[in-house]
Amino acid sequence: MVGGGDGAFIGAVHRMAARLDGGYRLVAGAFSSDAERSRASGDAFGIDATRAYASWQAMLSAERARGDGIEAVAIVTPNHLHARIARDCLDAGLHVLCDKPLATTLDDAHALAQAARAAGCLFGVTYTYSGYPLVRHARDLVATGALGEIRSVQVRYAQDWLSEPLETAGNKQAAWRCDPALAGAGGCIADIGTHAYHLARFVTGLVPNALLADLASLVPGRRLDDNAHVLLRFENGARGMLWASQTAIGNANNLELAVYGSRGGLNWRQETPDELWFTPLGDSTRVIRRGDASMSEAAAAATRIPAGHPEGYLEAFANLYGDFAGAIRVHRTHGRCAVQVGAFPTIEDGLEGMRFVHTALASSHAGGVWLPLHGGMPE
Amino acid sequence: MVGGGDGAFIGAVHRMAARLDGGYRLVAGAFSSDAERSRASGDAFGIDATRAYASWQAMLSAERARGDGIEAVAIVTPNHLHARIARDCLDAGLHVLCDKPLATTLDDAHALAQAARAAGCLFGVTYTYSGYPLVRHARDLVATGALGEIRSVQVRYAQDWLSEPLETAGNKQAAWRCDPALAGAGGCIADIGTHAYHLARFVTGLVPNALLADLASLVPGRRLDDNAHVLLRFENGARGMLWASQTAIGNANNLELAVYGSRGGLNWRQETPDELWFTPLGDSTRVIRRGDASMSEAAAAATRIPAGHPEGYLEAFANLYGDFAGAIRVHRTHGRCAVQVGAFPTIEDGLEGMRFVHTALASSHAGGVWLPLHGGMPE
Amino acid sequence: MVGGGDGAFIGAVHRMAARLDGGYRLVAGAFSSDAERSRASGDAFGIDATRAYASWQAMLSAERARGDGIEAVAIVTPNHLHARIARDCLDAGLHVLCDKPLATTLDDAHALAQAARAAGCLFGVTYTYSGYPLVRHARDLVATGALGEIRSVQVRYAQDWLSEPLETAGNKQAAWRCDPALAGAGGCIADIGTHAYHLARFVTGLVPNALLADLASLVPGRRLDDNAHVLLRFENGARGMLWASQTAIGNANNLELAVYGSRGGLNWRQETPDELWFTPLGDSTRVIRRGDASMSEAAAAATRIPAGHPEGYLEAFANLYGDFAGAIRVHRTHGRCAVQVGAFPTIEDGLEGMRFVHTALASSHAGGVWLPLHGGMPE
Amino acid sequence: MVGGGDGAFIGAVHRMAARLDGGYRLVAGAFSSDAERSRASGDAFGIDATRAYASWQAMLSAERARGDGIEAVAIVTPNHLHARIARDCLDAGLHVLCDKPLATTLDDAHALAQAARAAGCLFGVTYTYSGYPLVRHARDLVATGALGEIRSVQVRYAQDWLSEPLETAGNKQAAWRCDPALAGAGGCIADIGTHAYHLARFVTGLVPNALLADLASLVPGRRLDDNAHVLLRFENGARGMLWASQTAIGNANNLELAVYGSRGGLNWRQETPDELWFTPLGDSTRVIRRGDASMSEAAAAATRIPAGHPEGYLEAFANLYGDFAGAIRVHRTHGRCAVQVGAFPTIEDGLEGMRFVHTALASSHAGGVWLPLHGGMPE
Fold this sequence. Notes:
Distance between the termini of chain A: 29 Å
Shape of chain A: globular
CATH superfamily of the largest domain in chain A: Dihydrodipicolinate Reductase, domain 2
Order of helices and strands of chain A: EHHHEHEHEHEHHHEEEEEEEHHHE
Largest sheet of chain A: 9 strands, mixed
Number of strands of chain A: 13
CATH class of the largest domain in chain A: Alpha Beta
Oligomer: homotetramer
Mean pLDDT of chain A: 94
Number of helices of chain A: 12
Radius of gyration of chain A: 20 Å
């Protein structure tokens, strides 16, 4: 693991997700650029003192020298370091599981993607919400035609934690996320808008060919957007609407997806992730629950406990870790990865997310105009 | 009443709404342009045979000749007749309660509005959703500053009844609503988008100065839009997003409004109209119920029965009728109307709705571009 | 109408319900035992001054003398007068629509029922909740075997308006409802427990043969029960549980019914009456909405407006009035009533409710023991 | 760990819960009485082959002989073995975390409790639902008087997985749970009723002094109860109602608690565990979410991730494991346990659960009569 010292939010989430199913052992890390803090974190995580490094470079060279060196790396640093670290890990022949965004510019992301394709290592990106069982079931419903031809997509991701100017009030999370130098040019659109976009793409499989964005900084003085309105047009003629906000008081992580087709509609909310509402044309709505007999194979495989005993975010995250572990096992045997598309989000998804954010920023800066959004998920 | 013969949907709603509180007596009507059918309807409604007319012109002249002639008219005909009938009623010195839209073109609507302003009669437009008690409470929360400065507005009106091409399958409602000659140039945007727009304007009081619309006919072969995506920019810098659809399978009349300000957020859904969710900044969400002690005066006045015994659409509709009756009583006494803005939607709201639809159509036809939307609710 | 002077709660509800569908005209009443107040109320309701009487006796004799005298009477007085007035109305050959309870003692109720059976007039009892369309659909689901053999019934009616000792604080509604002399020996069990019981009986058709009740006065100093726990055993072996409370803070009129059978389960809540949740064995839950294609004929007939535009308590109440009007029309033609069982609650249901309350009180007074509960709905 | 071989349901849950926060290492186990299967399971769990034992006795003696032997044991076998194994573990000086029930008879449970009190080891019982953060917050709301004097408690635990006679259809879980020889004399009442009872006791702290139960086997041919109706009377005069069922089609693990006091009411549902509805007297309902600023210290401490990212059953389970780990650490330092009551359910809770089941069975067998239920949680 690179980053994620004791106290960091997302690092702890990664560790819990990795531990939950017992498929990983955390044996080394560069948890902080401060040697002392990295060692202390390593200690807290039960890691051998010699393997808590002061830099990722030190980690990579020392681990390579061991017979039992690490096999995969989780990158959980601030955004602006992702690309450099990931590149070095790939060069070291390690599998990489990286938080989004891949990089702070689209060019850097393209370069990294090219490197990853060449490297022959696995590269996963933690678009967490695709790990929920009922999101996978939704995807399968669409794929098997239960909704018919998709006509419209509504997706929202609303938070409220940035409703006040916390970035000037000593809140660390807010400070780096609202600072263009550390977070990149996108605020809310990059932080959570990209999750909403990936979710819509993951479930529908639709390829958008144009978007229009109206981004705003609704909190006075904020330097990055904290509210994003995006319109989408898909190749097949379907239309989409995406709203992301970090200033919507009363919403914690209210990610919601609705998909409408010619034969049915579905609705899923991350805050009640164990339910999927599905309405066949002309019939009553079904409340599909994780564990129902009708669950698709993929959804059932992403489930640990019976229906009615709720699973949540950590379990979804652990599903990505589990998928990634499965891919590593395949890779060990077959040399190259033979994992089916969609089992976990790959670098192509990460790149697509970068493209989305980049285009949305360009559209909004131009006053809110339609811009082409080339290409689909796997180029 | 003009239109609304036995069997018509909205005419029956008007009659129930008018009856509920006992403030009106239906004594005359031109229920159909077929004399026989008009008489039969009048008979069904318990109306004296001599007062069931074959045309509104006949009704107006005959009623004017009576000592006890009608005092107000409800216009519930197909859209393309609204303006002509309303004009004639105003000329006859009658108060008018008219379904939206005012007319099929913005020019006609402007002309009618001018006539109405000159006439000195009352003119109400049935933007029904503003009649719900908790919508009025929401408006009062905003007005009293409970939400602080408004930053963002999300409004949706999703139906599914036009998910199939019913207009070519013998469905009368669908046939006229999807025919430009009878419904006007707007489909979904005019039929329900305008309701969503009015609701947002009613609750927030915000004045939008630009919009951008992406309208689509998602059902193959449909001649009018059945899905509308609209972005809004308000004078105070707030942003808005509006989605209206008649092809969203699983939604019956899913009208939902969320308003976010610097100090709080609120959420209301028409399908559960007796609840309003309000979250003050930094605090837990409140589920405000019709009848709670905290209800505003206006909301409490729009309530008939205790909390927990649900009121619905007809009661909201009856609230408009009740407000209109109150205004008529004031008018009787004081010669001119002295009713406070907001008690019921007026012709200015009707005009604003026309302007919204007109601008949205123009924006969409231009490929989805920003257009100015002049003016606010009361010009 | 007897009782229900201007300002009274349930009288106003009756008038709105009667007006909604235009099937009734209120032409006479004894709205108060105070002649002046009765006249003033009559005036407020638009009734001819000569027909606003100071007593029901005066009303009955005067109306009988008219050629156009009243045909039916709604009794909305305090409980202790119901039986006497109803008896006199029957003797006058009038149809009666009476609030529950029929009487303050079971013996009086039996006597009244016998009189009603002999009289050949219609006798309706306003068990309002059976008027909801989805309650009727639930009944039809059970009747057609969609749930299989019924095994268990859970019903609750929770309010909170008596959580404080309002009866000693000047609240009139609370004062008479908590006074044994005016309300009878049952408090909460009689006021709302009987509604819950009727709802369970109406939907399931099951005949209970024993009950056990534990009634309590949870607010210190209260003279009647304000919380009721009741266990039921049905003839077919099914079990039931009923909870009624007027001290459950956070509940307004939270009436909820769940019925479980060998092939399915259903759930309905009065506060969201337009939805019925139905789960077939081994399948996903269906959210059945008023207006869904699958609605039973009886449910569809009790519906006025399309799904998604909510109907509520007044509409349910109006359905009882409508059913009663239909029965009167049949009665006019055929001499005797030929209306199918279940269209509206009859005196037999009123009697069954009395029996339930009587037995529950006896069980509780004996310390909470099982007592037989003879008989079913249609004796 | 004793029991919980590869494939067993609850063993896997224990392992995930133990792993989630990294506080435990699973190093030894007697996963099956079949030596081969135990070894295979140990292998699957990554355990040293020499420490996967064929019996708990073998495990206890071998581990005692090691310098680095186990410190605590999780007992996840079928019910009838709990008491013997626990006793042996205590004798070996090990801390015990045991599934409920403690034993198959109340006498055995008493004996075990006495042994545990004498042993000076920690003894936890996995009443999982007390691990949910908002259950702990609910407890703190009651304890700090936010609800005033508690007046009534409603608790339900409804499942549907035994709606058919699965025990005769080859379902293993059903087979042992419906077999008196393996599960004990209680079916549903012992399997889930006791969870509901513990939850009510945990949150309210109320001591019941009498209960009455009506247990039934609603599925023809079933040998144990599958539906339980229980009435409770508490020392302070409050009343309670408990419903547990495994035949309520449409319910997966619908555990719901409502508590009403003189100053407020609260409601919590296990299937949406991140919300707690709290209504102060005379005010609007609050939707308290995990992570809200108002959370009690205990609730906040039981939380891993921000509000809106759902936590579920495994996290609640892990909270018990975490509390138990904390107690073990204290025990290491201070010799004896000094952990505050309530941090995790202890053997006294386990004993209270046995007493509840025992008394409910006795009451029901006597036809449904009131029986005293001596004692409270901490004797």
